[in-house]
Design brief:
The protein has about 625 residues and is of the alpha/beta class. About 35% of the residues lie in helices and about 20% in strands. It has three domains: about 260 residues, Aminohydrolase, N-terminal nucleophile (Ntn) domain (Glutamine Phosphoribosylpyrophosphate, subunit 1, domain 1), CATH 3.60.20; about 190 residues, Rossmann fold; about 140 residues, 3-Layer(aba) Sandwich (Rossmann fold), CATH 3.40.50.10490. The structure holds 6-O-phosphono-alpha-D-glucopyranose.
């Protein structure tokens, strides 16, 4: 949600910033802007529209400065206009600022600043913060600067510029990842974060501030993940980190483990397509090294819980948002089915305000691809505040959720760039299945059942490969149904969450109205939608409820509703019942949701392409939702 980049070095800042913005564009793409410092002036270009519009605009200006900031926006306060695009410039012309987050008390601050003579060009909360910094800078005595700092990075922890940002932030309520330039400090940049992601790339003679690693990976793999309440000051070729309260922080420089090619489309038309087809490898990476030597259970290095501590747990709570919430619902089913322990799943956004009573021996999990979703982070903090240990299932290494959790499991699927989650989802399903196995084996699951479960999970990547081979047939089905305006997705038990996910995928990227329902519930309302114009996608795997699902299909067919059936090998449908059939390989219950995810991902993808939609950047959405 909003991408920010800042550069201080020897190269042309605008070029590096624009490259970073292109890689961050999946975070928000309403408008974009860049500002560089040159000869004591702020040179600014900003436009509503995609980053490519900004690239053309910047090309007209020939910005040559080597210090700069850039932003790609997902609008919160103020509509999508050039004026509301970032960077914002303070009304005295001294500061430029980019911001990801929401300043909640902006209206009080604005009233105060208006009374002090500051003017505003935009409707944004960001411009208020920019002017507040200018106000504090004007109040600080000129020349106020602390001595250089001796933590090895040697920029000095204090300066009038830095202290003005610090003072302004002390008056701000809300969330922010910001980067600020000051005309009086041509080779400096100040950046800070609170509940919005921010990291510092440490390169060869240069530093880059960014919302996430994809924006810096082409320049450096050395990275410092900033924590909430920290301020970084880039100056004199180095950097210092301090807290809002002016305490010094010793930086820890980490290495990013993936490379630039992981964040590129290669020969695929879209990131989403690439990520769908990467799933076999992503699943292999998620499970690598995570099975016991005797092949009967899972192993997780980072849970920070002993087997006997886990044995005390008699209830689980899972919180997440969006697609990750669907993965939690499948995990609930598997834990209850195989470990026979109760599980509750809640939307993180609901949990944080619901004040729900939790049992004492509850183990709390959050699931989040990005590790930055604000509601999931807030749910984690709320559970910790109540004294619960919280484990995170998360993909992005070094993310806020990963750092704040008491333990967890990394997904290891590499960067997911397509806004609609695919490979992260199937990896979450896999890890959920492994968690269920681990807990079940601490309880009543036998050694031999454990061995068959493990061997089934190990076979999941190949089964997914088999489904991916059906892409041409699924594409043909997509073409037939791409012009319908409503869809139902229906499934039962562990595939009910897959029905929700199938409907979400279709909505997200093709803007077709779709609903996911338990197949039998369809009679209690959604059946009213059924006509020739509303196809139903059914999950009908082999098993005890197959015949029941077939009955639901008959009810749809009797009302002229087209039926797309996703069955497993060995299932026989009555002739003429389904208008299109996709057959999945027969598999273990724990693997079925993973395999079943693939056809609905492909169906949605090809329908969206057929409708000419921008698959990787669907309207109004953002990959990582860091505002409430
Ligand atoms: C956004 C994305 C979804 C994602 C959800 C949760 O809404 O568009 O694809 O599932 O956030 O994201 P997380 O990073 O917490 O898994």
């Amino acid at each position: 949600m909003c991408g920010i980049v800042g550069y201080v070095g020897k190269q042309k800042a605008a070029t590096i910033i624009l490259e970073g913005l292109k890689r961050l564009e999946y975070r928000g793409y309403d408008s974009a802007g860049v500002c560089v410092l040159k000869d004591g002036r702020l040179e600014l270009a900003k436009k509503s529209g995609r980053v490519e519009v900004l690239v053309k605009e910047v090309a007209r200006h020939h910005f040559t400065g080597t210090t700069g900031i850039g932003h790609t926006r997902w609008a919160t306060h103020g509509g999508v206009t050039d004026a509301n695009a970032h960077p914002h410039i303070s009304s005295d012309g001294k500061f430029a600022l980019i911001h990801n987050g929401v300043i909640e008390n902006y209206s009080q601050i604005k009233t105060f600043l208006l009374s002090k003579g500051y003017g505003f060009q935009s409707e944004t909360d960001t411009e208020v913060l920019c002017n507040l910094i200018a106000y504090h800078y004007a109040k600080e005595p000129a020349g106020a600067s602390n001595p250089p700092h001796a933590n090895g990075h040697g920029t000095g922890s204090g300066s009038r510029f830095l202290e003005s940002v610090r003072k302004a932030l002390q008056h701000v309520e809300g969330t922010y990842g910001i980067a600020v330039l000051c005309v009086d400090c041509p080779t400096e940049l100040v950046a800070a974060r609170k509940a919005s992601p921010l990291l510092l790339g440490v390169g060869d003679g240069e530093h880059i501030i960014a919302s996430d690693a994809s924006a810096i990976i082409s320049r450096t793999q050395s990275v410092v993940y900033l924590k909430d309440g920290e301020i970084v000051h880039l100056a004199r070729g180095g950097f210092t980190i301090t807290t809002l309260e002016q305490e010094d922080v010793s930086p820890v420089v980490d290495k990013i483990t993936w490379s630039i090619s992981d964040a590129e489309k290669g020969n695929y038309a879209h990131f989403m397509e690439k990520e769908i087809f990467e799933q076999p490898i992503a699943l292999e990476n998620s499970m690598r090294g995570r099975f016991s030597e005797d092949g009967s259970t899972a192993n997780f290095g980072g849970l920070n819980l002993t087997a006997s501590e886990l044995r005390q747990i008699d209830r689980f709570m899972f919180c997440a948002c969006g697609t990750a919430w669907h993965a939690c619902l499948v995990t609930e089913h598997l834990i209850e089915r195989f470990a026979r322990l109760p599980v509750e799943v809640d939307y993180a956004s609901e949990f944080r305000y619901r004040n729900s009573p939790l049992d004492r021996n509850t183990l709390f999990f959050v699931m989040s691809q990005s590790g930055e979703t604000i509601d999931t982070l807030a749910a984690l903090r709320e559970a910790q505040r109540k004294g619960y240990r919280v484990l995170a299932i998360n993909n992005v290494v070094g993310s806020t959720i990963a750092r704040e959790a008491n333990g967890g499991i990394y997904q290891h699927v590499g960067p997911e760039i397509g806004v609609a989650s695919t490979k992260a989802f199937t990896s979450q399903l896999l890890i959920g299945a492994m968690v269920a196995l681990y807990i079940a084996r601490l309880r009543d699951m036998s050694f031999s059942d454990g061995v068959s479960y493990v061997s089934a999970l190990k076979g999941a990547p190949d089964l997914v490969r088999q489904v991916l081979k059906q892409a041409p047939e699924i594409k043909a089905i997509a073409k037939r149904f791409a012009r319908h305006a409503d869809f139902l997705f229906l499934g039962r038990l562990s595939l009910f969450p897959l029905a929700l996910e199938g409907a979400l995928k279709l909505k997200e990227i093709s803007y077709i109205h779709a609903e996911g329902y338990p197949a039998a519930e369809m009679k209690h309302g959604p059946i009213a939608l059924i006509s020739e114009e509303c196809p139903s996608v059914f999950f009908a795997p082999k098993g005890e409820i197959f015949n029941k699902v077939v009955s639901s299909m008959q009810e749809i067919k009797a009302r002229k509703g087209p039926v797309i059936a996703i069955i497993t090998e060995g299932c026989e449908l009555p002739p003429g019942l389904a208008d299109a059939v996709i057959t999945l390989p027969d598999c273990h219950e724990a693997v079925l949701p993973i395999v079943a995810a693939v056809p609905v991902q492909l169906l949605s993808y090809y329908i969206a392409v057929e409708r000419g939609c921008d698959v990787d950047k669907p309207r109004n959405l953002a990959k990582s939702v860091t505002v409430e």
